[in-house]
From TrEMBL:
InterPro entries: ICDH/IPMDH, IsoPropMal-DH-like_dom. SMART domains: Iso_dh. This is Isopropylmalate dehydrogenase-like domain-containing protein. Its cofactor is Mg(2+); Mn(2+). Residues 9-345 form the Isopropylmalate dehydrogenase-like domain. Keywords: Manganese, Metal-binding, NAD, Oxidoreductase. Gene3D superfamilies: Isopropylmalate Dehydrogenase. Coiled coil: none annotated.
Amino acid sequence: MTHDPSAPVIGLAVGRGTGPELADVFERVLGALTAGHPGTVTIERSPRLYHSYHSLRGEPDIARIRELTAADADHYERFCRTRAERGTTAIFRTAVNAQSLYLVRERLRAVKVDLLGADGHSLLLVRDQAQGFYTGENAHTPGELTRTMTFGREITRSVVRYALRRARQEWPDGRIGRIVMAYKFHLLDGALDAWVSELAEELGVEIGLFQPDTVNRNLITHGLPDRTLLIAGNEWADIMHVMLLDRFGSDRQENRCTENVFLDPALAGLTEYQTVHGSADDIAGRGLVNPVATIRAAARVAEGHAGRTGAVEAVEKALRILEERGISTPDLGGRHSTTAVADALLDALDTPGAGTPADAALVGGS
């Protein structure tokens, strides 16, 4: 069968642990959402099964771990660049060893974007993954590891400028309540302060640069204004993301997907979707992993990159049906397997209001 060159191609990168199970869910849901629509989607899967942190722990020595980490990073970077060159606009990636991922994110200048909202208030979180402690290289000497990392004026400019563009996209009337940057800038000799001041003047906006503990204190004491654009160094944002979800997102980490945008000009237009949760190696192959975040990622890819208008809302309605029927995996207090939840979701998409499908197997059942 010849591939239609006008049809969208979606990338898929799979890590170890529960990655293969979730990749299957993604393919099934994306296929169901786009079936019968013009330009049937093709999924291009990376040929490499990438390591998780836990799969690397069985390696015999540090040198071997470093070798595999670098190999995964190099391969995934090439995969992203190749897909971008060929016109792919979206990749779904399951959880992969963070050290490999951050090598790629540094090289491709990535930011993680998550729009959070609850009680009529919204917050746009833009996590700077392109610089700082999470990036850089390790050097080993006997009994010691030295990590070298960089902050850069041009990287900071590209992150802030993208964040403003994204905020205006999310809030089209142009009203941004406040722009806050949370970075450990006291350790940077005043350089970050100077770059941000210059950029704020150039862009004609007011930007508040704060230490992370100050942002935490203000969040606890006063909250943050509606439509806060929060640009944050990953040292703080990675830890606080789940707390911000609790405060603003009204959602669990296990149920949420998010996106990474690459600011390298060669990858302009390519967005990577991922689950917020990790690889969960301890339950791999047991049918216990929660597929909700993956299902939501498939919906966002279908709507945003495959022309399936209404996919996100259709999936949210189906998920509400599952919640009403008590169909969920054990991490949410349910008794259903990964496959059973996915089956029930697809059934709810096809026949809203129908009864619980007979094949919604309980964990441990037949």
